């Protein structure tokens, strides 16, 4: 049976560290403040927002939500982002995505200043990540994968890591963070040939494609660590990208739910505290 790499202990360790860092910022008169911008009332957004508020309360960060109707115009959203950019007391911002289809998502993502872009949605943050420069923030789920691997002391130096998925939210940024740790990274996508072989050759597999149970247990072996980023709802149940039989086969695997997702919120607030420290 695989070791379950649960997210909760990782989030607790991050919370403990952040509580101390926020106390030090408070002594200097700084109170880290996050602004969450939400359009509409999607269930997933509300769930994430509540978990962010709880985590902020636990570590002593401020959190405000700005809620706009889903039918708001792009100009109205850009106005809100401009106000966040100019507010010195706001250290960072999370825009819950995807934005409504009538908006130009790329233009909206570019509007937030990179030093407040805690979820690495703009190309300036992503460019800094890809160039290996400090200053921006990687997308939180990608950072959460690294937090998990680090917490459970999974060796990455020289390790072969296969990443399934190449989105700008997870697949590509996590591959860059892994390269920074000197892993040998293979990034796969819907046109990749022979995924079973590419999965089998990995020491660490990161599955982030959004297809429940897509990765089969027989593609895996007993020496591997598997991070299952997938979070698809099937008949009201959250399912990962890796079939559950993999738990009988590999060395270690993240549960879904309770794995990577449980660390993503903690990573967002870690980015907030870093932004406040830099400011
Ligand atoms: P996305 O933008 O839809 O990207 C999916 C990626 O998977 C694409 O690169 C796509 O390849 C690839 N893919 C799709 N079908 C494939 C196949 N049959 N074989 C190989 N690759 C395939 O999704 P995302 O935003 O990256 O999210 C991925 C999953 O992570 C979703 O389940 C999402 O809910 C979950 N997620 C979890 C968290 C968390 O905190 N736990 C946060 C965000 C997202 P192409 O590029 O070729 O199309």
What is the CATH-assigned architecture of the largest domain?
A: 3-Layer(aba) Sandwich
The strand count comes to 11
Major sheet attributes: 6 strands, parallel
CATH class of the largest domain: Alpha Beta
How many H/I helical runs? 9
How does this model look, in words?
This protein has two domains: 85 residues, Rossmann fold (3-Layer(aba) Sandwich); 122 residues, Rossmann fold. It is 40% helix and 16% strand. It is built from nine helices and eleven strands. The strands form three sheets. Strands 1-11-8-7-5-6 form a six-stranded parallel beta sheet. A hairpin with a 2-residue loop joins strand 9 and strand 10. The chain binds NADP nicotinamide-adenine-dinucleotide phosphate. NADP nicotinamide-adenine-dinucleotide phosphate (NAP) binds next to helix 9.
Secondary-structure map:
Blueprint: E1 3-4, H1 8-27, E2 33-39, H2 43-59, E3 62-68, H3 74-86, E4 92-95, H4 105-111, H5 123-130, H6 140-151, E5 160-164, H7 171-180, E6 184-188, H8 195-200, E7 204-207, E8 225-228, E9 232-234, E10 237-239, E11 252-253, H9 260-278
Parallel strand pairs: 1-11, 2-3, 2-4, 5-6, 5-7, 7-8, 8-11
Antiparallel strand pairs: 9-10
Helix pairs in contact: 1-9, 2-9, 6-7, 6-9
The structure holds NADP nicotinamide-adenine-dinucleotide phosphate.
Residues 141, 164-167, 169-171, 188-192, 195, 208-211, 229-232, 260-261, 264 line the site of NADP nicotinamide-adenine-dinucleotide phosphate.
């Amino acid at each position: 049976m695989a070791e379950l790499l649960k997210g909760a202990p990782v989030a607790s360790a991050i919370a403990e560290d952040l509580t101390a860092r926020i106390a030090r910022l408070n002594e200097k008169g700084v109170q880290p403040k996050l602004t969450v911008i939400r359009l509409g009332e999607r269930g997933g957004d509300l769930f994430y927002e509540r978990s962010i508020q709880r985590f902020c309360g636990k570590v002593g960060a401020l959190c405000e939500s700005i809620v706009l109707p889903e039918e708001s115009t792009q100009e109205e959203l850009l106005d809100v982002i401009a106000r966040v950019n100019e507010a010195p007391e706001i250290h960072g911002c999370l825009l819950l995505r995807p934005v409504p289809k009538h908006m130009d998502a790329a233009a909206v993502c570019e509007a937030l200043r990179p030093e407040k872009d805690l979820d690495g949605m703009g190309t300036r943050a992503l460019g800094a990540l890809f160039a290996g420069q400090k200053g921006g923030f990687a997308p939180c789920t990608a950072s959460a994968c690294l937090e998990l691997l680090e917490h459970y002391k999974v060796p990455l130096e020289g390790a072969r890591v296969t990443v399934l998925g190449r989105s700008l939210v997870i697949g590509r940024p996590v591959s860059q963070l892994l390269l920074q740790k000197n892993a040998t990274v293979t990034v796969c996508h819907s046109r990749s040939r022979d995924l079973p072989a590419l999965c089998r050759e990995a020491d660490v597999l990161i599955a982030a494609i959004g297809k429940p149970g897509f990765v089969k247990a027989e593609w895996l072996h007993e020496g591997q660590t598997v991070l299952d980023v997938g979070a698809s709802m099937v008949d009201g149940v959250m399912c990962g990208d890796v079939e559950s039989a993999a738990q009988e086969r590999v060395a270690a695997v993240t549960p879904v739910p309770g794995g990577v997702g449980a660390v993503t919120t903690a990573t967002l607030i870690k980015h907030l505290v870093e932004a406040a420290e830099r400011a």
